[in-house]
Each structure stands twice: as structure tokens, then as C-alpha cells.
Amino acid sequence: MSQKSGKLEKDIKTSSANKLLVICVDRDNDVGDKAGIDTPVFGRNACIEAAQRLALEDPEDADSNSIFYAIKTYEDLVSKGYQAEIITVAGVANRGVQADEKIAREIRQILEKFSANGAVIVSDGEDDESVIPIIQNILPVVSVQRVVMRVSRSVEYSYAVFGKYLKMIAYDSKYSKFFLGVPGILLLIGGIASVFNLTTEIFAVLISILGAAFLIRAFDIDRAWVSWSKPTPGGFIRVFTMVTGIIFILASVPAGIAVINSEIISTDMQLIDVITNQVIIGQYVLGASPILWMGLGSIFGGILLSNWLGGSLKKISDVLRLIVLVAIYPTIYQFSNILINDESSFTLIPPLLAGLAITLISATLLFRRYRKHKGGEILTE
Description:
Elements: H1 5-13, E1 19-26, H2 30-33, E2 41-42, H3 44-57, H4 62-79, E3 83-90, H5 96-111, E4 118-123, H6 126-129, H7 132-136, E5 141-146, H8 155-171, H9 173-179, H10 181-196, H11 201-218, H12 221-228, H13 233-258, H14 271-275, H15 278-309, H16 317-341, H17 349-370, E6 371-374, E7 377-380
Parallel strand pairs: 1-3, 1-4, 4-5
Antiparallel strand pairs: 2-3, 6-7
Helix pairs in contact: 3-4, 8-9, 10-11, 13-15, 15-16, 16-17
């Protein structure tokens, strides 16, 4: 780690602060998720213990080094005669507004114990430093210390580091969805287009398979399937309802085609004329919607039932997605009638407003039913 004690001393001398709070920021809450430590962590010994536990759980995590760096900064300040204390604060795993609110709340909690008039922030990257404006609203920031890890420059270690980044791209869902998902979609589309063009069919199939493999790995479909197909009641229900739902969804295509009036389609009509004919589209949607909605309802109902049997029915989305599915169907039905019978578009307003009202009322009731209070924060779980 690079030490910037000269810069730190210069920053402090230019300020009027004499009671300093050294704040180590962990915005994505690695210290809580990996080491199981509740924040805020207050005091030198508690921070040392937190850093050691995090380093034992994940030796490659940079946050443990940030905590040690903050401890070193705290000791330097104390040796120079400053009144200082050290804390480690953390946000939540998905960052965002909830993380920033949690960090601000934890700093205010510590200030009730130690009335500091200046803050020294220690972080290991720009993501953690994004909370600096929030901290400045609570406490003047005297200095910002960034932890930079020193790595070996040898070829062997460079290859090891490069390999770890490749593994992160392949297995970390935060990165794989972009680095693998987007190329997978492009390759899949290119393969299908090549098949329709009737050129290099085998090459097109290979591209499609490669694209599908990228998609499966990028979106954790393989891991999700393994977890869904576990030999538990919930797992069997998920598999059954998923397969049933997919069959219904596929069956909705011929069901929609079957209700189209064949007299509307003439032999000299082009494909573009068929797919742009509003009557044909309306009849297709009208015939396909019931089967399609049954398939989606089967999938959503299976998720709800499996979570209920597993005792993990926490999020209101499990119930709300089924309510939304039912509430939106009258709008789809009326949209089909508009296309077929050339009715006024204003006839969409009543079913749309009714579906919106049902959704809002249901969401409100479910929110009140499942919300929990934790540390003054309302969680919709």
C-alpha cells in the first residue's frame, strides 16, 4: 500500500479540526456479507478484529487492507497529538441510495459518542469515495486517503492477476451479464439471420450454440436450473410449473394462428402485409392471449408456491406479479377488440384504469403486510 502521510499532515494543518474521526468506507458491505460483522465498527481494536476476520474469509478482498490503512492513519494522528477515533462504516450489497443512507446513519450514530469536528476518509476506490459529499453534509472532510495495492511486476504474477480477472468476468454476475451476455445475444442473432439467409448453415448453428452458451453463463441460467431442480418439494414444483408454463407459451403461437380468419389472408399477400394488418394482429392476440397468460401464470404461481413451501415468501413481488398479470389481461383483451372491430382507442381507458387501481391497492396492502422495521429503516421484504 502507498503511504501518503505527508499529504495527510498537510491537509490537517490547513484545517482547524482537532478532533478527527478516521472513517473507513465499505459501500458494498463486504465486511458484513463476508465476515458477518455488524457496522459501524468503532475503535482501534474492533477495527483490527474486523479486518482480520474479513482477511481470513476473503484474503483477496481489498477492504481488509483499507481497514488496516485506516488503523495506520489513526495511529499516525494519535502520535502527532490529535484527538482521534477510527470507525468502519458499510452500506449494502447493491450499493445505491440505501447504502448511502445507511452510511450516513452510522456516522451520525458514532458522532453521538465522539463529537469530532473533522473527518479523514479512507477508501480503496472511486465507488467508496462517491459518499464523500454525503459525509461532508454531516462532518467536514479534512482529507481523503486512497488505498492502492502494490502487486508484483513479474510475468507469472501478471498472468495470475489476468487469470483472476478473466474468472471474475466469467463467474461474477455483476460483470458476466455485460461481457458475456451482450456478445451472446449478438452471436445468437447473427446465427439465426444466417440460417434465414440459407448460407453457411453449419457455421450459423455453431454461432447460435456459442451465443446460447454465453447467455446461459452470463445470466446464471445453469446455476438457477441447478437450484430450481433440487430434490425438494419447492424444487419439483418450480421445475413442473416452469416446463408447463413454457409448453403453454409455445402453444399460444398456434392457438393465435388458429383463430385468424383465413378469408382475410389472400394468396398474393406479402409477409409484411400480413404482420401489419391490424385485424390479423388483433385476432392473433385474441387467440394467443389466454394460453399465453396461462403459461405465465403457471410460472409465476410456481415461484410463489415454492417460496411459500420453503418458508421464504418475503418479497411482495411473488404475489404482486400474479396480480399484475391478472389486472393487465382486460387491457390486452380490449386492445385486440380495437384492432379487430376498429373501435375507439378511448375504450382502453376503463380497463387500464381498473388494472392500475387493482395493482396500486394490492401493492399498498401487500406492503403493509410484509414490511418490517429494522434499525429505523423500512424494508419491503
